[in-house]
Design brief:
disordered N terminus, eight-stranded mixed beta sheet, four-stranded antiparallel beta sheet, elongated, binds S-adenosylmethionine, alpha+beta, Rossmann fold, 10 helices, 25% helix
Length: 350
């Protein structure tokens, strides 16, 4: 019996081990440098952070004046369950308010554990303007849903795979959220607790004795405007003349593009691109049409084989150049397939 319980606890701890990846100050600084203008006169809330150890707290407290922040609130969750890894007496969660002067009296204990979903924590969320943190990975969907429900500005860390969650992709599709600047190896690594086993090459112990693991699979997700979102992807390849490199899908009227840098500059129709496209996405240049599925609602396929998740997009700039209507009138009637292709080619060469 004991053995069984221990197994299930270990399983749970293993499953949620990413919840204990703590963010390094250097990674916070390297992303936050692009958002400085957003924080003036704002209340910032880090709702999954122990102010005694969180580098998000450290970053905002030490840049408080420079950023012109009105108030910083940092809330610490305290797990109420006593288990193999947590055999201390349970304590309530608490939050700390910082207005530029450190004062221990600003610590307030919650009645409960400080869960970001609790009414007490939501009350703080509602008072705040921008939420910035690295939330528990296992609760990512719920975490984002709460931010959207309360119409909050945010900048958070998540796993790259989160893009493929239908709830998150829907938000990206509706332009309610987008990727931040750093992604994958751009986020150098996370501090992990003592009991976390370091294995593989992507681990180290830093000069301060912190155990660091670099999963290289994380991203920043935000709804704060950033310059990158307004920069066009430089397109150099052409579809016409290189059709063989861009096979047509079996179940969708579109072509497959394996790398974002290979998106052809002259293709007006639908194109399936890898999810990393989103890191470069400028909504003025491209329109996101659909995710992953063809007309039959099965995964997009080429001669029966499915490439890894594709996002269907269309080049907006080419749609605007000439309207099809104009071309039809000019030609005094309907175009043949050959004529249509020529028109597309001409548009591509403009
Ligand atoms: C991935 S760690 C990141 C910690 C910190 N935000 C950072 O970036 O260093 C997630 C944190 O969320 C806390 N946490 C877990 N479940 C939570 C919940 N339901 N509500 C609030 N915080 C939670 C964990 O204790 C852990 O400190």
């Amino acid at each position: 019996m004991t053995r069984k319980v221990q197994h299930s606890l270990l399983g749970k701890a293993k499953k949620n081990k990413n919840d204990e990846f703590y963010t390094q100050l250097s990674d916070i600084e390297s992303e936050l440098q692009y958002y400085k203008s957003h924080f003036k006169d704002k209340i910032v809330f880090c709702n999954c952070d122990d102010p005694r150890t969180s580098n998000f707290f450290k970053y905002f407290a030490s840049n408080f004046k420079e950023l012109g922040i009105k108030k910083l609130i940092t809330a610490c969750y305290r797990e109420q369950e006593i288990n193999l890894f947590n055999n201390k007496e349970v304590e309530n969660g608490f939050f700390f308010e910082y207005t530029g002067v450190e004062d221990e009296n600003n610590i307030v204990y919650f009645q409960g554990d400080g869960d970001f979903r609790s009414n007490e924590s939501i009350e703080l969320l509602m008072q705040s303007d921008i939420i910035v943190t690295n939330p528990p990975f296992s609760l990512f969907r719920e975490y984002v849903a709460q931010l959207i429900k309360h119409d909050k500005k945010f900048l958070i860390i998540g796993n790259i795979n989160a893009i493929t969650y239908k709830e998150i992709f829907k938000l990206i599709h509706k332009n309610k959220t987008w990727l931040g600047i750093k992604l994958g190896r751009g986020i150098s690594g996370f501090i992990v607790p003592e009991h976390y086993e370091l294995y593989g090459t992507e681990t180290k112990i830093d000069s301060q004795g912190n155990r660091i693991i670099s999963p290289n699979n994380c991203l920043w997700l935000t709804n704060l405007d950033i310059f990158k979102r307004h920069e066009d992807i430089a397109l150099t390849k052409k579809y016409y003349g290189n059709e063989i490199e861009y096979p047509h899908y079996d179940n969708y009227d579109g072509i497959n593009v394996n790398k974002t840098k290979d998106i052809p500059l002259d293709y007006k129709g639908f194109m399936g691109v890898p999810i990393t496209f989103l890191h470069k996405f400028n909504p003025d240049q491209f329109e996101i049409i659909k995710f992953r599925k063809g007309n039959d609602e099965k995964d997009l396929s080429i001669k029966g084989k499915c490439p890894y998740f594709r996002i269907l997009i269309r080049n907006k700039r080419l749609q605007n150049k000439f309207s099809d209507k104009k071309v039809l009138i000019k030609n005094n009637g309907l175009l043949s397939i050959e004529q249509t292709r020529n028109v597309q080619q001409n548009i591509g060469s403009q």
